[in-house]
From TrEMBL:
GO terms for biological process: DNA catabolic process. Belongs to the nuclease type I family. The keyword Transcription does not apply. Keywords: Disulfide bond, Endonuclease, Glycoprotein, Hydrolase, Metal-binding, Nuclease, Signal. Pfam families: S1-P1_nuclease (PF02265). Monomer. Its EC number is 3.1.30.1. This is Aspergillus nuclease S1.
Length: 299
């Protein structure tokens, strides 16, 4: 009995220890992306989603989510510990130092999206395409679990917009770059998953995720309003275009995440305040594109 307890405690501890490095955006980042897609704050009863997409999302969400996509947007992070096959789908590695790398799934040598074993299509870009295709079977006879497909798609659409989820291979998207976030030891990947968002919420929004979400939504309708159509648009034949999202990601990783953040650096206000607009922009794009993709899927 005692031994059993020890093993369980060990398992729980290693689970907790593993968490910080393995999340996508943290809980808050993912929730923000999904809430931007599903609801607009200015008109709480209205949605970025078309009526049919809103209906399909409501039908597919598990009952306990109470029609709040944001509340289950991190489900994919919670299950990766037992759905081991899904781990590789949260990110895409890019060749070292290639800031203008272009993902192109349609090209002959689409060797850019693969897992550690070299299996093609197993990265965040391939996953977004795959779950989009599965969801196109909605309302038809399908072999797929479309609730899972919706939760995976919503989560991965967030991940692909976190610049370091398409970071360099050798530093594992900044996971191997040790820095200090103010006084705390941290790695660069975690700063982009969690710390910038958390610090923004604490400092500017009374530690309230809704305040930050609302500020981003206001930017979408004001500052970025003339760009939103461009974010939504894919090539006319495509339902979603993660190649573009990921290619933007590595460019942003070089320009904002890796820049001035080498191993051993101390990141403080200079870094935080200059990177926060980019984090807000990527969260906004993730939400807008998730809604646009769901609208194209469900009509
Ligand atoms: Zn993730």
């Amino acid at each position: 009995m005692k031994k059993c307890y020890k093993i369980q405690l060990l398992a729980t501890l290693s689970f907790i220890l593993l968490l910080p490095n393995t999340k996508g955006w943290g809980e808050d980042g993912h929730a923000i992306v999904c809430r931007i897609a599903q609801v607009t704050n200015d008109f709480p009863s209205s949605s970025r989603l078309s009526d049919s997409a809103a209906d399909a999302v409501k039908n597919l969400l598990p009952k306990y989510a109470q029609n709040d996509l944001g509340s289950v947007c991190s489900w994919a992070d919670r299950v990766r510990f037992y759905l081991h096959w899904s781990s590789a789908l949260h990110f895409a590695d890019t060749p070292d130092k290639l800031c203008n790398y272009h993902f192109d799934q349609l090209s002959e040598n689409s060797g850019d999206c693969k897992d550690q074993d070299g299996e093609k299509g197993r990265c965040v870009v391939g996953a977004i395409k795959n779950y989009t295709d599965q969801l196109l079977g909605y309302g038809k006879d399908t072999q797929y679990n479309l609730t899972q497909a919706l939760l995976f798609l919503s989560h991965f659409m967030g991940d692909v917009h976190q610049p370091l989820h398409v970071g360099f291979t050798s530093d594992k998207g900044g996971n191997l770059i040790n820095i200090h976030w103010y006084r705390r030891k941290q790695n660069l990947h975690h700063v982009w998953d969690v710390n910038i968002i958390e610090t923004a919420e604490e400092r500017f929004y009374d530690s309230d995720i809704n305040g930050f979400t609302k500020a981003i939504q206001e930017n979408i309708t004001k500052t970025w309003s003339d760009q939103v159509r461009g974010w939504e648009t894919c090539n006319s034949k495509e339902t979603t275009c993660p190649d573009i999202y990921a290619s933007e990601g590595i460019e942003a990783a070089c320009k904002w995440a890796y820049k001035d953040a080498p191993e051993g650096s101390v990141l403080e206000d200079d870094y935080f305040l200059s990177r926060l607009p980019e984090v807000s922009l990527r969260l906004a794009q993730g939400g807008v594109r998730l809604a646009a993709t769901l609208n194209r899927i469900f009509g």
